[in-house]
Write a structure and sequence with these properties.
mainly alpha; 15 helices; globular
């Protein structure tokens, strides 16, 4: 009888969550609040009450957490790539390139140093926590990402474009650093060793990135030709306007890249960008994007609700003040400083650089990387697993609340200043 009641409660929660995912974004629109804040708080509140709602233990349920977060990330990457209208180029993408090439390594180095000093963790664990917390995730603050795939002027301003493109690529480019932590742990345990670096550079950096990008380019071009220019009407899917095809493109690119031992996250994002480039002004991109956004929103709502419950029952009780300080310094000091350093010389204005550097939002990608690392790195299965989860979950909580509350007023102010500024001669 108890199992039946529990099952019914889960269905009730799922129904309320799905309805909330549709209603809450409209209720908080243009307010200093975000949908992720609401569902994170709801999960924490429900977990704190004596209700028969199951909670997730990421240590015990690691495999489930890994695959659920993996699915959410790849769907969000497809949506992000489809939304971007700016063609690839060294100058056009200068902001994201700087954030990826300079700010990402600086953020990882700074966070690893903090973890080593404050938590007294060995090099492998310090590098792991830094790599896990490296990816950014504008999905959790919709105001700072490019919106629907339209030609609207504000949708492709430098701040929104840089943050969206950065998040789309660093979900894949942080992977080599996670694998570096696993390789270091396997080679040296709690000490330092350089024996692993050569193979890591050749395989985990150069080869896997190349495979991911190549699969994305090939898949995007083939799908673009099929969707928009196939001679057979049944294959020219752009004329049928079916949004679920976006999932087919997502899974195809991700699965092919992973089977070829490349980075699937990179493949999905590159596929989406290449697919958008195949016919930039076609309305089918909006259909695909809307479908991925709906799936992404449902998955995000579910995961954040469960994360809120974990924080109340397991995460915050296991968190030490040193771990909390690492998260606070990452969000408030390390990422903003690394972002500003990376954007030195960029074409954006001073205010835009500050906003771009500040909104380094931590989210679902960090949860995936930690679950992946603890499952694939046998040398890292230590007593620190719960502390790792506590630090990462608190960093996501802090980022969701701080960035989610600040996004609307900050971006609205920036848009106002941009509109009121005189056009250059």
């Amino acid at each position: 009888m108890g199992g039946v009641i529990l099952s019914d409660a889960v269905y009730l929660a799922m129904g309320l969550g799905a309805l909330g995912a549709a209603v809450v974004p409209r209720l908080v629109f243009k307010r200093p609040l975000s949908m992720p804040i609401v569902f994170l708080a709801a999960g924490a509140l429900v977990a704190a009450l004596p209700l028969p709602v199951p909670t997730v233990d990421p240590v015990r349920d690691r495999l489930w957490v890994e695959h659920a977060t993996e699915l959410c990330v790849i769907v969000s990457l497809m949506g992000a790539g489809l939304a971007l209208n700016r063609p690839f180029g060294r100058r056009a993408w200068a902001g994201p390139w700087r954030l990826l090439g300079l700010s990402l390594p600086l953020t990882i180095a700074g966070t690893a140093l903090l973890a080593a000093l404050l938590l007294d963790w060995p090099p492998a664990l310090a590098l792991l926590i830094a790599a896990v917390l490296a990816p950014t995730d504008p999905v959790l603050a919709a105001e700072v990402r490019v919106g629907e795939p339209t030609d609207a002027e504000n949708d492709e301003d430098e701040v929104r474009f840089s943050l969206t493109a950065e998040a789309g690529l660093n979900d894949g480019l942080a992977f080599p650093f996670v694998l570096a932590a696993l390789a270091l742990a396997a080679a040296a345990g709690g000490d330092w060793s350089a024996e692993w670096i050569g193979r890591w550079l050749l395989v985990d950096v150069l080869l896997k990135i190349a495979v991911g990008v190549a699969v994305g380019l090939v898949a995007g071009r083939l799908l673009g030709r099929m969707f928009f220019r196939a001679r057979t009407n049944a294959l020219r899917l752009s004329e049928h306007m079916e949004g679920f095809v976006a999932l087919g493109a997502t899974f195809l690119a991700y699965g092919a890249a992973e089977l070829l031992h490349g980075y699937g996250f990179l493949a999905v994002f590159v596929t989406a960008c290449t697919l958008r480039a195949a016919e930039r002004s076609h309305g089918y991109h909006q259909v695909l994007h809307e479908f991925t956004e709906q799936i992404e929103r449902l998955l995000t709502v579910c995961l954040l609700f469960l994360l809120g419950g974990f924080l109340v029952t397991e995460g915050l009780p296991a968190l030490t003040w040193q771990g909390a300080l690492v998260a606070v310094l990452l969000v408030l000091v390390v990422r903003p400083a690394a972002g500003l350093l990376g954007l030195i010389g960029a074409a954006a204005g001073p205010k835009e650089k500050v906003v771009t550097a500040f909104f380094g939002i931590r989210g679902i990608g960090s949860l995936f990387y930690l679950a992946y690392a603890l499952g694939h790195g046998t040398a890292l299965v230590t007593d620190e697993a719960r502390q790792l989860w506590a630090v990462v979950a608190f960093a996501v909580l802090l980022s969701v609340v701080l960035h989610g509350a600040a996004a609307t007023p900050v971006i609205r102010r920036l848009d106002h200043l941009r509109r009121s500024s005189p056009a250059p001669p």
